[in-house]
Write a structure and sequence with these properties.
The protein is α/β, with parallel strands linked by helices. It is 40% helix and 15% strand. The protein has 11 helices and 12 strands. It has helices spanning 12-25, 40-50, 67-79, 94-102, 120-129, 151-163, 222-232, 238-250, 253-278, 304-313, 344-359, and strands spanning 63-66, 85-90, 106-113, 117-118, 132-137, 167-171, 197-201, 212-216, 284-285, 293-297, 319-320, 333-337. The chain has an 8-stranded mixed β-sheet with strand order 1-8-7-6-5-2-3-4, sandwiched between helices. A hairpin with a 3-residue loop joins strand 3 (106-113) and strand 4. Helix 3 (67-79) crosses helix 7 and helix 10 (304-313) packs across helix 11. The protein is globular, with a radius of gyration of 21 Å. The two termini are 27 Å apart.
Length: 362
């Protein structure tokens, strides 16, 4: 169901070691607030890693948040007012659609494909007709379709947004889960005017439960972000920030990432193979080059909302395509999470879904 990566693929024991170590070494420090901007050691470790995303920032440029969700919410608060129009990819993560609604923002869906991501032509066209205030986008391995924007498109996208005065809020949560040899570049790496926000977290790479994310705001917006952070949650969990700082400094995070990527790419391959084998003829499935999600497009006769309800009764969790749009699209699509190691149960569940879908033909 959720885009959650199974704990067996995470460095649970070494994270626990870091947690025990920092709590023992700093019994008093773990009891008090961290600065609003976050733990200095953790921000330094994150700053070191931004270079692989193609841009440079120091620890000062980073604000730690409660997961990527708070980072995105802060960026939206800083760059929009209720009633403003925010452009998103279609389909996009349902949590983003809810967040926009929650902040009183209007959603404008942009055409996207599962290979190239958002359509620049559609963005240019809609920017002529609507006053788009911000674009909340995931260029690398978009949830749910796993698309990856080519670098020349990223560069053009940033230019289009400059020209139309659109602030980009980049959700960079999946980039470290690339199956290609190098980490894909961020939109931020093309943001030479420093106008855009980058948001990310460790939820997909180390621990979803720690809820540790971060935001890299434009320098001009940093004070505003700190002010909003102080009113939304004051600061982020002290001991968990310290544990992650220790973990990144002393345990081999890159080696863990290599293992995790290999496991996910194998899961995706196996699930996609099983879908081609067990799902009705004419079903299409994405083959993303990163992330942990597969997007399935059934023949038109399959209603995935009904399929979802039937599957739930058999304890099978998938998410229907209509959840990823604000306007009743993707009724024959389904998102499948590949973040769980392949096993006989998963195969059984896929066989079951295939049967239920086939039964909808008559």
């Amino acid at each position: 169901g959720g885009a959650i990566i199974h704990t067996s693929l995470m460095p649970t024991m070494s994270l626990q070691k870091s947690l025990i170590k920092v709590a023992k070494q700093n019994p008093h420090k773990v009891m008090v607030y961290e600065p609003i901007a976050g733990n200095a050691g953790l921000r330094k470790e994150i700053a070191k890693r931004t270079i692989s995303g193609g841009f440079n920032t120091d620890a000062e440029g980073i604000v730690i948040t409660n997961g990527c969700t708070e980072a995105l919410a802060l960026a939206l608060r800083a760059s929009t007012s209720p009633g403003d129009i925010v452009a998103v990819e279609s389909p996009t993560y349902h949590g983003i659609l809810r967040m926009l609604e929650d902040q009183g923002l209007k959603v404008l869906e942009l055409a996207s494909t599962s290979d190239l991501g958002v359509s620049l032509e559609d963005l240019e066209k809609k920017a002529q007709s609507y006053k788009i205030k911000a674009a909340l986008l995931t260029p690398n391995f978009l949830n749910p379709v796993g698309s990856l924007m080519p670098d020349e498109n990223k560069e053009r996208l940033v230019q289009i947004c400059y020209k139309n005065n659109i602030t980009i809020i980049e959700d960079d949560i999946y980039s470290d889960l690339h199956f290609t040899t190098t980490r894909p570049l961020t939109l931020k790496s093309f943001d030479k005017k420093d106008k855009n926000f980058l948001c990310s977290s460790f939820s997909k790479t180390l621990s979803a439960g720690y809820r540790i994310g971060w935001i890299v705001p434009p320098e001009s917006e940093r004070e505003k972000i700190l002010l909003f952070k102080s009113t939304s949650s004051l600061s982020t969990n002290t001991v968990l920030q310290m544990a992650l700082a220790d973990h990144l400094a002393n345990h081999n995070y890159d080696r863990h990432l290599r293992r995790l990527r290999l496991a996910l790419s194998q899961n995706i391959f196996r699930i996609a193979e099983a879908i081609e084998k067990y799902f009705p003829q004419g079903t299409k499935v994405t083959r993303p080059s990163g992330g942990c999600l597969l997007w399935v497009e059934f023949p038109a006769y399959v209603n995935t909302l009904q399929l979802y309800t039937k599957a739930l009764k058999k304890n099978i969790s998938v998410i229907p395509g209509c959840a990823f749009s604000s306007c009743d699209k993707y009724m024959n699509c389904l998102r499948i999470n590949a973040g769980v190691p392949w096993n006989i149960e998963i195969e059984g569940a896929l066989i079951e879904i295939g049967k239920m879908a086939a039964q909808m033909k008559n």
